[in-house]
Predict the structure.
Amino acid sequence: MTYPTRFSGRSLTDGPCVVVAGGGTAGHIEPAMALADAVMRIRPDARVVALGTSRGLENTLVPARGYPLELIPPVPLPRKPTPDLLKLPLRVRESIRVTRDVFRRVGADVVVGFGGYVALPAYLAARNRLPIVVHEANVRPGIANKIGARFATAVAAATPGTGLPDARVIGIPLRQSITSLDRAALRAQARQFFGLDPNAPTLLVFGGSQGARTLNTAVSGCARELGDAGIAVLHAYGKKNTIAVQDDRAQRGQPPYVAVPYAASIGLRPGYFGANYLGIEHNPFETDGDPNADNFQVNNIRPAAGLSVERLGDRRELLKEIDNFRRDVDSSGALDAVDRFQRSAYELVAGSAACKAFDISQEDPRVREQYGRNNWGQSTLLARRLVEAGSTFVTVHFGGWDHHWNLQSGMENYLPKVDQAVAALFTDLSDRGLLEKTLVVLCGEFSRTPRMNNGGNGGPPLSMGTPGRDHWGNAMFCLLGGGGVKGGRIVGSTNRLGEVPQDRPVEPCDIHASIYHVLGVDPHVSFLNHAGRPVPAIDRGQVIHELF
């Protein structure tokens, strides 16, 4: 891109050229664009050029506003001393050289910086050559603006107390479309556009263009309380983030955590699937029974015979009054857990959402056939119905894989059922528009020995049956799909015998971190155990970046 410059015979009557340096996030870019708009309103003959790097939001926001964008090498400043810090002077020098070339080419008359990694090379390149204006939007200035303010012609700040020399408090530049917005006239239209209640008070939550993880977690965590208070929420959580907000249908009569047909591990129910120190109210709701049976019915989701919803409500109020007498002497918080459990139970029985979701007989017979008319296939279909109705976490139990003998017959029986159920689930979720917001995980506890045993299980060979495989924890698999996971990826490999990881080994904690990433849950969150000590949800682990 070329511009007329003072170095190529530009007339002195030409308008001024203003270079704005604010890249990376919208917090730096939007004030720069607001200033650019103001300059063009005051001096239509002026030119505004934006500086940026190839990896910031400026690549989208600046061209969309109609301004030319010049790219310079980024100069990220390490937050901690690292070997990479030794390369910083060379990077700064190269970025300054490229920036000065831009200034010459565009005929810059003044540089206005808004902080961030674009501003620092702009300040240093313009020093003693061009007037410099610094704008700081935060109470605590970043290092770029701290340096630039030392030799700037003028310094402006959004708030007092920045500590920048001779800073003039002017607020944050805003685009005219915001400052001139007729909120009263557009309120009804905006609420309709975002699907908000036209009369409810509305809370706007935003953590900058990239979102704020802590803010996202806090707001999504109190979504139910906000809903109970009748407050609507419009949450801008950032393009790169996801948040997990429990659907109101799950809150109002749909169990959020369901196990089909039951949750079990090592012979215990719910075993590893239980909520442990989170409290029994967070244990999975178990359907029991066989969803493939003609008489399949989930117990305890309808009022008892002769008990109307009104009488059920009366009993609930009576129970609440009784509990109030005990609450005065309870300091353990146990009654709070009971309250949540009873509320969920009441909403489950009093509402109709759960009854409809659990009634698999209402499903299209052709869809039932696609999943397979067996316990596993129909359990998977029931899981899809529950997710569609608002449950947020459903576990389908495929048990019975302990083939220490008779492995061949077991695999010939089980594998076709798994293939059919999983394939049907992905297809069904995609057809219903649910796949991108539903994560599917197919995984076990461990793998099986690479070598077959002799079928004796400790006794004489073949005394228990044909050869099988025993427990093996050195390598295993996990399938993930949907929920933003990119398909067709294979991450890692084992040696040729399937004994140990060979390339790109990942651990269960990495799978946990990846699931938390999809759900928008802070991986550093902790919960209090029975002793009142915080326990991290994930001990360690990194998101498996190849999946996204």
Remarks:
- The longest strand covers residues 47-52.
